[in-house]
Each structure stands twice: as C-alpha cells, then as structure tokens.
Specification:
The chain is an alpha/beta fold and 277 residues long. It is 42% helix and 19% strand. The chain has 10 helices and 10 strands. The strands form 2 sheets. Strands 6-2-1-7-8-10-9 form a 7-stranded mixed β-sheet. A 3-stranded antiparallel β-sheet has the order 3-5-4. Helix 2 crosses helix 4 and helix 5 crosses helix 6. The model has no long low-confidence stretch (mean pLDDT 94). The structure holds S-adenosylmethionine. The site of S-adenosylmethionine (SAM) has 26 residues, from loops.
C-alpha cells in the first residue's frame, strides 16, 4: 500500500505535467492525481511516488512512461454531436460560407484538436460529407489529433458501443455506421468511406509540428482549454490564429471563451468564433 501523495511530491508532478502537456493541476486535482499515479506505481512495482518521479525523469529517450502517464491523467470524455447547436451552425452557416470562399481551390481543411476517442471528428465528417457528397472535385481532409495514444487508437479503430451512438441522427446512423458482428456484436463501426477523410495524429499542444501544408478553414478545440492556464491558452490560440485561413473559424467548448485571451476573433454565437480578416 502506497502512502498519500505528499505536498512536495504533488508540486513535483504538477510542474512536470504542466511543462510537458500544459495541463494545470490545482489543489482540487490532488486526490485524482494520487489515484492515477498509484495505478502506474502498481503496474511498475514501485513503492513511492518519488521513486516514480525519478523513473519518469530517467525515461527521457523512449518517453514510454511519459506517454503512459499522459494516457492515464488526460480526460478523454466526449460524445457524438456534443453541443448540437454548434453542428447546426457548422451545417447552416459555416460550411456554406467556406464553400463559397474556397470555390476556386476546392480545398477544405478541418482540425479536431483534442479529438479524444474520435466522436467529434466523426460528427464533423458526417456533416461535411452531407454537404459535399455530390461534389467529388473537392479535396477534403479532417485532422483528428490528441496527445493521448489510447484515445487515438480507439478513435482510429472507430468501434463504438450502441449507447454512445444514441445522439447520432438516424439517417446518419444508417449511412455512416454498420453493425459489428461476432465478438463485437452490440457495437457499431464507422464506415470506411467516412473514415478515409480523417487523418489521425498524436500532437501535443505544447510543442507540435503541424501536418497540413495549407491553412486550416475550421478548428474544433472543445473542452480542452479548460485544462490549461491563461499562458498556455494564449499560446495555443495564437497558434490557431497563425494556422487558420483568413476568415477561418474556431469552435470552443461551452465553458470556454476567448475573453482575455485573444481579441483577433469575432464571436458568432454558440462559442464559435471567426478570425477577423
Ligand atoms: C475532454 S476531451 C475533449 C474531447 C472533444 N474535443 C470534445 O469536446 O468532446 C480533452 C482532450 O484533450 C486532450 N489533451 C489534453 N492536453 C493535451 C495536449 N497538451 N495536447 C493535445 N491534446 C491534449 C486530452 O487527451 C483529451 O482527449
């Protein structure tokens, strides 16, 4: 049985996590962190949190343990069509506008930044597919990125339990999912035709190489910035501003805002912003 996480140990991990992934762990997260660390200690057969801390520091090259820690402490909760009003705005206002703006290049780039286990990226892909399904001449790519490799693997596998697809409109369910069989019965697969629009990447917001060559038209970064302090938020939004197309769109979670972070975006409503031209 491992002791409680001491204040000194909490501070060490707090700084370690902040430096590596930007996530701020305040006092209220101490019990959560202790529980998550205890499970790693248990797996590795280590006896104290300090021992684990030095184990992490020694593991610089492979970063295997760092990834395990990140996978353990990041919150990858998500849902299909989470915040439905934003998907209405995407379908009725944003995509029609982008379709006009990009009518010459016919290139559309969307980024689900912090996609967790994939529902956000697939929800966006369904809406985009509906709008562009007759238009085969368009080059459309959706980047789905996260730092959590378990979450990304899950997203890539795209096998979801019945309960989790209840928010998917029935016509989309019929068109974009198929019932899994055998040992996966009770689960639903995303159809390959939809999946092929997506590009999965492990990206850390603290330090990343962006894989698209052309600017992004729409970024979804929802329920991610709540974990960051103001400095990290400012840096991240500055990167979004740089990577976005002129007049590009940024969609945040419903408890997030750009107030006090960046004034180069105009609020459209429903926590969706447009870059000022
Ligand atoms: C609560 S989920 C949000 C999922 C989805 N965007 C939604 O709103 O339903 C937050 C995600 O942010 C990711 N995340 C946290 N810190 C990150 C970082 N530094 N770089 C990239 N992703 C990060 C987590 O791994 C997690 O999957």
């Amino acid at each position: 049985m491992v002791d409680c996480l001491s204040e000194k140990e909490f501070q060490l991990f707090k700084h370690f996590v902040k430096n590596h992934i930007g996530v701020s762990l305040d006092r209220t997260k101490k019990a959560f962190l202790q529980q998550k660390l205890a499970s790693r200690l248990n797996t590795l057969g280590l006896e104290s949190y300090s021992e684990y801390y030095f184990y992490l520091l020694r593991d610089k090259e492979g970063e295997w343990e760092l990834r395990q820690l990140i996978n353990t402490i990041t919150v990858d909760q998500s849902a299909f069509f989470r915040h439905p009003k934003q998907f209405e705005l995407l379908a009725n206002v944003i995509l029609p506008q982008v379709a006009i703006q990009k009518n010459t290049t016919k290139k559309l780039r969307i980024w689900s930044a912090g996609c967790a286990i994939g529902q956000e990226a697939y929800s966006v892909a369904m809406v985009v597919n509906e709008m562009f399904k007759e238009v085969h001449t368009w080059d459309i790519r959706i980047l789905a990125s996260d730092i959590n490799t378990y979450a990304l693997k899950f997203a890539y596998k795209s096998l979801y339990p019945k309960k989790s697809i209840q928010q998917v409109p029935i016509e989309y369910l019929n068109r974009y999912f198929r019932r899994a069989t055998g040992k996966n019965s009770g689960f639903f697969h995303v159809m390959e035709a939809l999946k092929k629009r997506l590009l999965f990447r492990r990206l850390n917001f603290v330090n990343f190489d962006f894989p698209f060559r052309s600017p992004v038209d729409i970024i979804f970064c929802r329920n991610v910035m709540i974990y960051f302090d103001i400095e990290v938020k400012k840096r991240l939004v500055d990167n979004f501003f740089r990577l976005l197309e002129r007049d590009g769109f940024l969609c945040l979670g419903t408890s997030e805002s750009l107030i006090g972070i960046d004034d180069r975006f105009a609020l459209m409503g429903h926590f969706m912003y447009q870059k000022k031209g």
